[in-house]
Amino acid sequence: MRCTIGVDIGTSSSKGVLVDEAGTILATATRAHEVSRPRTGWVEMDGEVWWDEFVGLARELLAAVPEAEVAGVGVSGMGPCILLADEHDHPVRPAILYGVDTRSTAQIARMTAELGDEDITRVGGSTLTSQAGGPKIAWVADEEPEAWSRARRLYMPASWLARRLTGAYVLDHQSASQVSPLYDIEHERWHEPWWQRYAGTVEAPELRWAGDVAGTVTDAAAAASGIPAGTPVVTGTIDAWTEAVSVGAHELGDLMLMYGTTMFLVATGAETLRTPSMWTTAGAFAGTRNLAGGLSTSGALTAWLKDLTGADYPELLGEAATSGPGARGLLMLPYFAGERTPIQDPDARGVIAGLTLEHTRGDLYRAALEATALGVRHNVETMRAAGADIRRIVAVGGGTQGRLWLQIVSDVTGLVQEVPETTIGASYGAAFLAAGATAAPGAAPAIDAWNPIAETVRPDAALRPFYDALFDRYVRLYEGTTSVVHDLAADQRGATPTTPTPEAP
């Protein structure tokens, strides 16, 4: 039975799927993990875990379907992450994760002053923010000179797996475009002068497109993973873009909305749209450009409330439904880990306004769901103001399993959402890329045949005036609390584990 394997390295877990030629999932496997947060604003992960989990997932998938004949392997992962390794491919330090890691504030300011906002945007497409990979590289050079002195190669989760599987040192264009400002988005190549200036001792990886074959499985990788030597491996890309592939939301006019630990939005078009509050990137495929955005928390926020209250998700969803629109007068800012787009404020923090002694955990959970929906609306309106032509919304990710959350997002944004039959996410998209790359000429699968739309969620027009007013309050709440919240964020950065805590009365 001809199959493909897809593996995605996510923020809270790694997932693998084994898929047949028709797109049917034959087996799934998951490995949960945690990121490290050694200081406020730092989010890291040991890159060696990515390979170890890939090996475990591959062996579990193959054991579940012994008759599977693996035709190709797809890889995907969170990003942009910065994993620097020495000439022997040993990581010189833990990987620095995407925009949720906000340590490079000083490097962003310095590089912006040195290069100028206008030139940075002209070359890379976006202003520098905590999402940009270039300042993270500069942070290692500035703050950890010993590690930097050994750094010779740059990886992200997908390219790390491709390297370990095939020996190829490659990075896809989409991921490279997020190593801003070191990638020239119009010419689709590394910007050599700035690469030499900020990453000169690191060899620039060869650039490929996400669906291109990086190489084939080596004998050593076959022995470790159980995947036959000689099996083609695609280059892969960042998980949000692979999720878009998994649901067919990568055509011109599409917007992919990913419900995960964080919330991610990717709008696809042919033009390079630039706006200081969003991310301009190359697409997963040649000839496309993306305007992207992301909330720093979504599933992470709901998980925090679940753990805090001791309730399970069905209980909280039921209570949130009973609470009703507006959460009985609560309004939450979901900036519990800073915020990415469109406010680009690493010092933003969560705010809950309107609390009384009468409010319940269901009200809090409802307010959290509405907060993420309001954040999505803020991003969509910013994208459209920049010129994005959004014709179709496709929802994907674990959060799509809860109809209430989907309905709230549609009600708040006024957008119709299409939910495909399979919402397992990036691992499925990676398997699809592998199937396309290894298919016979003219026989590549179509994603709408693999994964048709199963449900359409339409907004309740009667709620539009209410949520219009709530969105206005949402924006004003951030503006009105920024000064105090930034002071608190500064206090948090200065806090240490030995800081005395006043005893409760």
Automatic annotation (TrEMBL):
Pfam families: FGGY_C, FGGY_N. One of its GO terms (molecular function) is kinase activity. Residues 256-436 form the Carbohydrate kinase FGGY C-terminal domain. Keywords: Carbohydrate metabolism, Kinase, Transferase, Xylose metabolism. It comes from the Bacteria. The keyword Aminoacyl-tRNA synthetase does not apply. Belongs to the FGGY kinase family. This is Sugar kinase. It comes from Microbacterium sufflavum.
